[in-house]
Design brief:
Length: 761
């Protein structure tokens, strides 16, 4: 079975991690599955302060921002007109910023026309069938530097039009229509097309652009009835439903005394900065927090929307740990560069967790006003709150004119990257510029971002002349991740070193153990075992994913304690990996623990049944349990809502194989390849099927195509080389294996195969 999809890197852009590997699970009797020992995680829950309190008899209710204005006038004034306030609005003459005066925009032959009739706005553009059709605009989305437009569909979907309005001034290149994918051609049947699943507001955008949202997706009818408490990001989006707080305020006004209600009735009180000061040490020029930050509730609240994550539950409770309802992405490619710099749109959180600022106790509101989202001070002023001006805002530090970009803290330490063509996002890892890493790793650097007429070698030489040897910076994990990406032979020990180093950020350590999947060997097993008990949740998350490579009895022994982890995200990852454990080989208590976690996993997938990923995940679960009827049903459901979703085709075909239905599987794979002839994964699956049928030449053709189309998959290269050798073509097999090893130098299977083939020679 190919275990493809785990719904981790997909939200809010829907990218699926296709971690293809062959499972070889064997069961050898009850003795392989011992009794559980989970008390450590009961203690860990207390240590982390993550145990869920019992819900009060009457849960607080949303009251709307109008109930907040009278008492919180300053905060309300700051919020009005902010990006949160204008996150989503009905389309009106006041809110629509684009040119709807019969303006035209052409993109790869698709001619979109924008018009207005009375108080309504329309666009005539390409529909899901590739034909021109006129649609009415229902809502505007965002305000600066671009504004998108939402189109309602009869099934309750709102789709984000990919042609957006550049709201920047004309002098900056704005006041124009443009396509959010730049010059890339997006066909009408592409998931990225504006009518497709990747542009669906209900799933992709809604949770973070409105307050108190419920998707209300009906899986049987495949339709939405999405609702919100407030259309924008309002007070209660962060503070939680405010009815008890309003009650507290009214009771105090009537009695003249404060109520005894804890936290003034707020669901979550952001008090991490209360009574805290930052005092600059004149010897270092840096400030130190007067009291250590002992929680991350403010950061985790912001991370709900300002992170690359997938949603596990709609039952979000304000103030709880993010991983109770969401699964955050780690520092994996292609989201990040090997040194941790942002590559894809990752929404700040993953960057910030890598930073020295996070480790020092900085919170979001130390720099940003939480109500206006503006910085507390202009220019370098926000940094000089904690960094002595004479040390840092000086030519001796940055070697540039203080009045130009080179003297900007953010330009050097938070280099921006544009998304959606015109939207620059600053990297929040607060890194030291390292042009030498650009030379050795091919990553960007702040120096040549500005000095585009120079090369990386020039920048590296300049910084070396100014500062001596290149400072390591806080992201010292870079060399290990670069070793993995380049296929270096020492990638495994380098990753283990990062994973074991508690001075490294938790997200870097979690990424390191997760990345061991590609280069795992028995020598790393003790280190993996330790990571599975790490106090940092992100490390346990990465470890439990990698543990999926282990034979099932061993996997049970090492990961079953995580079924009782205090965090939902980790419990369900453990449950997914252990779904194939036969219940009759477990003690009654362990049966209950496993079944409970599996039910949690099922519930999380049903939260996003509008996505093919969720249905494939359920198909994988039931297939692992031997329930092929349910598994097949979910795989076919996934294909019904997205016929080109490769994991559904590949996993269904493999399950049909397990049932002796190879003819059906072959027809399915060939149908999939007719839709996606460039899919290496489907060619690979078809090649394996043909091997089983004894059609060796046809199989070799398919396996060769897979290896050529997806050279980043060492598995495809390995299997193709093995097939060549089995066909009596050892010289060709060695050539293919050596080529694969040159690209994946740390892959143990390829290394062993090359050694074997050379021995034959």
């Amino acid at each position: 079975m190919f275990d493809w999809v785990k719904m981790r890197d997909d939200d809010p852009t829907g990218v699926v991690r296709l971690g293809l590997f062959v499972r070889n699970d064997t069961l050898e009797g009850r003795g392989a599955f011992g009794r559980s020992r989970s008390s450590i995680f009961q203690l860990l829950a207390l240590f982390l302060g993550l145990a869920v309190a019992a819900e009060s008899p009457a849960s607080p209710e949303y009251v709307g921002k109008a109930a907040c204005v009278d008492c919180h006038t300053e905060q309300s004034k700051a919020h009005t007109g902010s990006h949160h306030d204008l996150a989503m609005q009905p389309a009106t003459a006041e809110t629509v910023l684009g040119d709807f005066t019969d303006s035209v925009f052409d993109h790869h032959g698709v001619r979109s026309t924008f018009s207005r009739r009375g108080d309504k706005f329309f666009v005539k553009t390409e529909n899901a069938k590739g034909k021109l059709e006129e649609f009415e605009v229902a809502y505007v989305f965002g305000v600066y530097p671009l504004q998108q437009y939402l189109i309602p569909f009869p099934d309750g979907r709102l789709q984000a039009l990919a042609v957006a309005w550049d709201t920047r001034p004309a002098g900056q290149g704005g006041q124009r229509w443009f396509h959010v994918y730049g010059n890339e051609e997006i066909a009408h049947d592409d998931p990225l097309h504006w009518t497709g699943p990747q542009q669906n507001w209900n799933y992709m955008c809604a949770e973070c652009h409105s307050t108190g949202l419920r998707k209300n997706y009906d899986a049987k009818q495949d339709r939405f009835d999405t609702t919100w408490k407030e259309i924008d990001v309002s007070c209660e989006a962060c503070h939680g439903p405010g009815s008890e707080h309003v009650g507290w305020a009214r009771a105090g006004a009537e009695s003249g005394e404060d109520s005894a209600l804890p936290g003034a009735g707020l669901v979550v009180s952001f008090d991490e900065r209360r009574g805290v000061s930052w005092v600059i040490d004149v010897t270092t020029g840096n400030a130190r927090r007067s009291e250590p930050r002992i929680t991350s509730k403010e950061i985790e609240t912001c991370a709900r929307c300002h992170s690359r994550r997938s949603q596990l539950s709609e039952d979000y409770v304000h103030g709880e740990a993010l991983m109770q309802t969401h699964l955050p992405a780690l520092l994996t490619a292609p989201l990040y560069f090997p040194d941790g710099q942002i590559r894809d749109e990752v929404y700040v959180y993953g960057s910030f967790l890598q930073s020295k600022m996070f480790q020092a106790g900085v919170t979001c509101s130390d720099c940003h006003d939480p109500h206006s989202q503006q910085l507390h001070a202009p220019g370098n002023g926000v940094c000089l709150q904690c960094h002595q001006a004479s040390s840092y805002d000086a030519r001796k530090h940055h070697r540039h004119d203080p009045d130009k970009e080179g003297g900007s803290c953010a330009e050097c330490h938070m280099p921006p990257r544009n998304y959606m063509v015109v939207d620059p996002r600053h990297d929040h890892s607060f890194r030291i510029p390292r042009p030498d890493r650009s030379v050795s790793m091919g990553v960007p650097n702040a120096c040549t971002n500005c000095h585009s007429d120079q090369n990386d070698e020039w920048a590296a030489a300049k910084t070396r002349d100014w500062y001596g040897d290149e400072p390591e910076g806080f992201q010292s994990f870079a060399s290990a991740f670069a070793a993995l990406n380049s296929g270096a032979a020492n990638a495994t020990p380098r990753l283990v070193e990062v994973m074991a180093d508690t001075s490294q950020s938790a997200i870097a350590r979690g990424t390191a153990v997760r990345d061991l999947q590609g280069v795992f060997s028995e020598r790393a097993l003790p280190d993996l075992a330790r990571a599975l008990f790490d106090e940092e949740p992100l490390v346990r998350l990465g470890a439990v994913e990698t543990a999926g490579l282990l034979p099932l009895p061993q996997r049970w022994q090492l990961t079953q304690h995580l079924l009782d982890d205090p965090l939902l995200a980790i419990r369900i990852e453990a449950a997914s990996g252990l779904a194939g454990v036969p219940l009759d080989q477990l003690e009654p208590e362990d049966q209950r623990r496993l079944q409970r976690a599996i039910q949690e996993y099922i519930a999380t997938q049903k939260t996003t049944l509008e996505r093919p990923e969720a249905r494939v995940n359920l198909g994988n679960l039931y297939s692992a349990q031997g329930d092929f009827v349910q598994a097949e049903d979910y795989y076919r459901q996934a294909l019904a809502i997205d016929p080109i979703f490769t994991p559904a085709t590949a996993n269904l075909a493999d399950m049909l194989r397990a049932q002796g239905r190879d003819d059906e599987g072959e027809a399915l794979l060939r149908e999939g390849l007719a839709r996606q002839p460039q899919s290496g994964a489907l060619h690979y699956s078809l090649g394996l099927l043909l091997v089983r049928k004894g059609e060796s030449e046809a199989a070799l053709t398919e396996l060769q195509k897979a290896a050529e189309l997806d050279p980043d998959s060492s598995r495809f290269v390995y299997v193709y080389a093995v097939a060549l050798n089995s066909a009596g073509r050892p010289d060709e097999a060695l050539e293919v294996a050596e080529g694969g090893l040159a690209r994946h130098r740390s892959d143990p299977s390829l290394l062993q195969l090359v050694m074997q083939l050379r021995g034959v020679q």
